[in-house]
Amino acid sequence: MLHLLRLTILIFLLILAVTGSAGATSPDRDTVAAVMKQAREDAKEMTVPANRFVGEGMKAAGHAANTFHSPEFQDRIRCERERLEKEVFDQYITPWKQKKQEATRPNKRSGILSAGEHIYLFLSSSVPDETVHTYMGTVAGVAEPHLSLVMRGVVGGLESRKSVRYFSRILKKDPTCRDTQERCARYQVPIKIASNLFARYGIDRVPAVVYSDGTSSFLIQGDAALDYLLERINREAGSESLTYLIKKIRGSM
Questions:
Q1: CA 209 – CA 148 distance, rounded (Å)
Q2: Cα gap 34→127, rounded to integer Å
Q3: What are phi and psi of 211, to 5 degrees?
Q4: Residues whose CB falls within 8 Å of the CB of residue 8, separated by 6 or more in sequence, listed in order
Q5: 229 pLDDT higher than 70
Q6: Where in the chain is the domain with CATH 3.40.30.10?
Q7: Rounded-to-integer distance, Cα 152 and Cα 129, Å
Q8: Which residue, of 50, 88, 228, 248, has the fewest CB within 10 Å?
């Protein structure tokens, strides 16, 4: 303690010497150097007493950590956080949550095509099953929500046995499979029955494909692979989304 007191006095004297009043004479360098030297010497002899409370402090810290991470205490924190969010910060948190939900909302663009883009693949029961089955596999493979299979209607109406047998047949993943006690695997591809779409786009023969971007529509008719038909359309449409969809159909992305 004596050394500490001496060091404190020396430092105090040094401060007085350096920051003396404007009228006082500045100390010479030798005096300052001597004071600093004595301070360093005294500092060498200083010893800081050991903290006899280290063990108790570590024990208390461990106890506090265990209490903080306990399920009961975490539940109390959660309840208090929820209370503060609702009663104090609700007016600030709610707008932020709404913005976050809007930014990550999947129905804004859940596929490659944007909300304003649609592709309609027009078919009928007159198209050979092999052709229809190929289209089914392609549409199921890309899983694009804005790509729809469209039919004007089916023979005998939707409730007839002919209609049921037809859809059951063309939806089979394996056309050679026969239903027994275990049904054959089938594509989960929605089919629109919409004669109004045939009229809207002037479809007079099938297969046909229409691409609409919300302002313009492009039509191509002919029995060809879907990626080829879309590629022909995109020569005029120039859609980046169509470019990516074609790549996906071809397995290059």
A1: 10
A2: 108
A3: -115, 130
A4: none
A5: yes
A6: 118-157+188-249
A7: 16
A8: 50
Which residues lie closer than 8 Å to 13 by C-beta, 6 or more apart? Answer: 35
- Alpha carbon dihedral 175, 176, 182, 186, in 10-degree steps, equals -10
Which has the closest alpha carbon to 223: 93, 110, 132? 132
Instruction: Indicate the pTM of the whole model.
Output: 0.56
Cα separations in angstroms, 206 against 101, 121, 203, 209, 211: 42, 9, 7, 9, 15
- The listed range with the strongest mean pLDDT (32-46, 48-62, 165-179, 228-242) is 228-242
Residue keyed to tokens 């008719």: 221
Token pair, residue 82, equals: 């929820």
State whether residue 118 is helix, strand or coil. Answer: strand
pLDDT tops 70 at residue 163? yes
Strands of 89-206, DSSP E = 118-123, 147-151, 191-193
Distance CA 233, CA 216 (A): 12
d(CA 228, CA 188): 23
If you search the block for the tokens 């023979």, which residue do you land on?
Answer: 155
State the Cα–Cα distance between residues 83 and 60, nearest whole angstrom. Answer: 30
Fold of 118-157+188-249: Glutaredoxin (3.40.30)
**Cα–Cα distance, 242 to 112 (Å, whole number):** 8
The single residue listed with the structure tokens 């989304």 is 241
Q: State how far the Cα of 184 lies from the Cα of 181, in Å rounded to an integer.
A: 9
Confidence of residue 22 (pLDDT cuts 50, 70, 90): very low
CA–CA separation, 248 vs 253, rounded Å?
5
Report residue 105 as tokens.
Answer: 């909302």
